[in-house]
Amino acid sequence: MSIVFENITKSFGPKRVLNNVSFTVTQGEILFILGKSGMGKSVTLKHIVGILKPDSGKVFVDHQDVTSLTANALAQIRRKCGMVFQHPALLDSLSILENVAFGLKTPQYVLSHSRPLSPKEIQDVVVQKLALVNLGPEVLYQNPPELSYGMQKRVSLARTLAPDPSYLLFDEPTTGLDPITTNAVNDLIFDLSRKLKVTSIVVSHDMACALKIADKILVLDQAQVLAHASVADIKCSKETLIQEFLAETLSWLPPEARITEPVEDKIQK
Amino acid sequence: MITRFMEKTLLKLLHELGGVFVFYFQVMQTFFTTRGNLQPILGQVASVTIRSLSTVIFAGVFVGAILVLQFNLILQKYDAQSLLGGLNTSTVVREVGPMIISFLLAGKIGAFTAAELGTMKVTEQIEAIECLGTNPLQYLVVPRLIGIILSSFFLLIIGLIVSIAGSMFVASFLCGINFLEFANSIPRFTSLWTLSGGMLKSLVYGSIVATVSCHKGFNATGGARGVGRAVTLAAVYTNFYILIANFMTSRFLDFSHEMIELLLGVNL
Asked: What is d(CA B73, CA B183) in angstroms, rounded to the nearest whole number?
């Protein structure tokens, strides 16, 4: 159970977004992908579920090459992968209940459960998943435009969790969320990884979150992997970009604390 | 330089047209190879027809009325007002009806569809559907495309009925041609063949409106600006393709008409 990127190169017109990118994510691992805007973080995620095809290289999910799968086989891979997009990406014409239940009605999900879920069972799953993101059953019959942006993001997260994916791909999951919900989402990612061995790849700008919950951090810069290492190694990195990320994370600390205390202690505080 | 510009424009147009054809065949392939399309299609037919009904009725009545007034001016000079009903109905059924309805559909439903799908594309809703294991062509495009095509057919029938009724009223109250005289001259210029030709044109134009608007919306990129661009291009290309298709279908129908009469020896 792993995700393997093998020499992936991807260009959009003349712009090369990924250049020979390779890395591996093992089962239960939480990988944070950091980098400045436009460095190919979201593009990396979209390769895993086959939304984008690389110009060269291969992407393996559970030892299957996603780049050469048929539509049906790709649908099976997508069944295992849940993706939370940058936008909430909820369907405006459907209620929250129908949005979260969307993945529970697909043929792939029905096949994996040997029978379709009854409407009652579907509602129970939806309520349970909404509770995980701090939303109550009162939102079930509302439509997405009736909810705030932060609530829509949480519904989007619940929709991704509903079919119990083995891999979770997050594209800036906490952007637009309040600090309390941000913490709840980070705790959720951590719990899913530790208790259910769900593998998570999180695209984010938030170094503090990465240092708090990631097992490994991958930093993309100039279309290439600048660093792919454990949190401890990243903290000791001498790379300028990583130093900038760390400095930005610590910028809220008083100057004297920044000078005297080791980085790790500051983060824990 | 002018030759180079024309060459570039022609190539762009062919590339665009090729993209629309490929998209149409992909949607049709999805339609014929997947199940469970009927209910959403019927929903779209009802939605499109109801939303366009008032516009079609309004346009139908006035187009019929305007044509009657214009034809009457000419026919009066030749003392041939008895042909007014036939000439008016034939023009509406052959050309004006399918064209006007498709232009109205392009402006109202086509623009709406391009904007709706475009917004879904730029806000990653289409990618989310794909990631949840559902084919977005089947879920979003098939019902809209087939729905618009079928609706254009139903709207043509409604449009023709109200247009002819409007023409009759105007002919009777403003031109002095009574209902019976108007109706009697209809078969002189309008046959089942004429009606079939109008229906065929309506299906072709409906397909153009549906395919171009879905194609432009489905492939929109670049945020709100991209959606605006998709809607504009959908409207421009739809009207452009309808005019070309009108010429081609008219030639095809004329040719088929002549060939059938020649081969079967019957008067259509």
From this structure: 19
